[in-house]
Amino acid sequence: MMLQQIISRAAIQAFLAAAALGFVVWLAAPWLVDRREPWDADWPFYSASLVLGGTAVTWWLPKQFTATYVGVWLGQIAALALLPAHTGWLPLGAITTGVGSLFALCGALLGNRLRRFSCE
Asked: What is the rounded distance in angstroms from the CA atom of residue 1 to the CA atom of residue 39?
């Protein structure tokens, strides 16, 4: 069985968009909130950016909850691994960003619900 038969095109697109979102949250945090780690910023930045991002991804590509969650999580892990200011955070960061990515999952559920209401 080919990979394309197992994973849909929409799931791949949602994963890539969500991974970019997760990476950009970490990349932009020093400029937007003057903190190296987005979770150290004043309360709404980290959670709100993930909720809004997850909402946007599933508004665009509905029913891609798993791809959105995994994409945001792995995007954040990639930021921890690749951005020079975060190199020592990878083991703990993998766990904490997995928990933090639940905000994106909540956003994904919200985006799917909003899309369903707007299309009815």
From this structure: 41
pLDDT in tens, 98-118: 999 999 999 999 999 998 887
pLDDT, tens only, 43-94: 889 999 999 999 999 999 999 999 999 999 999 999 999 988 766 777 888 9
> Which residue, among 49, 38, 47, 51, has the nearest Cα to 105 in the 3D structure?
51
CA distance 47 to 53: 10
Q: What angle do CA 19, 45, 75 make, to 5 degrees?
A: 15
- Are the beta carbons of 19 and 78 closer than 8 angstroms? yes
**Residue whose pair of structure tokens reads 């080919």 in the numeric block:** 2
**Structure tokens of 45?**
């930045």
Tokens of 99: 């928990």
Q: Is the pTM of this model over 0.85?
A: yes
The span from the CA of 46 to the CA of 25, in Å, is: 8
> What are the tokens at 48?
């709100």
Residue with tokens 């930045």: 45
